[in-house]
From TrEMBL:
Pfam families: BPD_transp_2. The keyword Cytoplasm does not apply. InterPro entries: ABC_transp_permease (IPR001851). It is found in: Cell membrane. The chain crosses the membrane at residues 12-33, 45-64, 71-89, 95-116, 123-142, 162-183, 218-240, 269-290, 296-313. It is a multi-pass membrane protein. The keyword Flavoprotein does not apply. PANTHER family: ABC TRANSPORTER PERMEASE PROTEIN YPHD-RELATED-RELATED. Keywords: Cell membrane, Membrane, Transmembrane, Transmembrane helix. It comes from Hoeflea poritis. This is ABC transporter permease.
Length: 317
């Protein structure tokens, strides 16, 4: 570690989000071994599959910038998916489902924000407990069985394109641009950056630390509800196990993208490419015929890489 601290070049290198390197390696591997897959339509299919994760990451990077974390996304996904696919709401228009999803995200965000921001409960424990509670409720209501199918228009919209870009990917890109502008152009973004640098100094400088942490958790859960709509449209059926692994993948992609607890070296686009790494990894693994257990191991290695990067970066902070 001393060699890194003494070398300014290595110091700058360690602050470059590893997502860019991993993405380049995976892209080159695919280009060399399976060039026929380097096709806009083919890649669009695979990238579309990670769009819900990419949206979820936008919320995760918010809370991680204020030195927190949100593992309740899986619970939000399950609740939204069940409410739509179970028919409990009856025959209602799409706007009613969207309002319901946003309301679920808002309610969960308020609980998370209160527990973490106001009561100072550990973010890991609080948000994980919320997911466990929501999962238990949905499994009780569903009696352990998948609830049913999604309305057909959800999957129809999911499979559309805007020019050559799949609609979910275009939507994800739009939200990423808006988040980048939100964090760079608005006062709230400066509050988040200040809290990430030093919460104590921010408090004495007049930054509303508590309110900012609460607002970050609320926004993260609302964004998770949007991801839930996209994810539900992608699977087109109800599930009592939908997206249980997504919050961990979101944390890994965020850290790979250079957004570490309190630091945001990767901005918004670092985590974006962190998610793209998962998309390319799936393409590479599939093209080589790697079975699901192998894909799980590869995902685990990426998460481990993210943890190692976080340790190195933290030690040099």
């Amino acid at each position: 570690m001393g060699a890194i601290a003494a070398n300014p070049v290595l110091q700058r290198a360690i602050r470059v989000p590893p997502a860019y390197l991993v993405f380049a390696v995976l892209l080159i591997t695919l280009w060399v071994t399976k060039p026929q897959l380097m096709n806009v339509n083919v890649m669009g299919i695979f990238i579309r599959q990670v769009a819900p994760l990419g949206i979820l990451v936008l919320g995760q990077l918010l809370v991680m910038r204020v030195r927190s974390i949100d593992l309740s996304g899986a619970g939000v996904l399950l609740v939204v998916n069940y409410m739509i696919s179970s028919g409990i709401m009856g025959d209602v228009p799409a706007i009613a489902y969207i309002a319901m999803a946003l309301s679920v995200g808002l309610a969960v965000g308020l609980v998370n924000g209160y527990l973490v921001g106001r009561r100072r409960v550990s973010a890991v424990i609080a948000t994980l407990a919320v997911t466990v509670i929501l999962t238990g409720i949905i499994q009780f209501l569903a009696s352990g069985k998948p609830p049913g199918d999604m309305p057909g228009y959800f999957n129809d919209i999911y499979n559309t394109k805007i020019w050559i870009v799949p609609t979910p990917v275009a939507f994800w890109l739009l939200l990423t641009v808006l988040m980048s502008l939100f964090l760079s152009r608005f006062v709230f973004g400066r509050f988040i950056a200040a809290i990430g640098e030093n919460p104590t100094a921010s408090h004495f400088s007049g930054v509303p630390v508590e309110r900012t942490v609460i607002a970050s958790h609320i926004l993260a859960s609302v964004i998770a509800s949007v991801a839930a709509l996209v994810q539900s449209a992608s699977v087109a059926v109800g599930s009592i196990r939908l997206g249980l692994e997504m919050p961990i993948d979101a944390v890994a992609a965020t850290i790979l993208g250079g957004v570490i607890f309190g630091r945001g070296d990767g901005g918004v686009w670092g985590p974006f490419f962190g998610v793209m790494c998962f998309a390319l990894l799936f393409v590479v693994m599939t093209s080589f015929g790697v079975p699901d257990p192998g894909k799980q191991i590869a995902r685990g290695l990426i998460i481990l890489l993210a943890a190692i990067f976080y340790g190195l970066s933290s030690s040099e902070k």
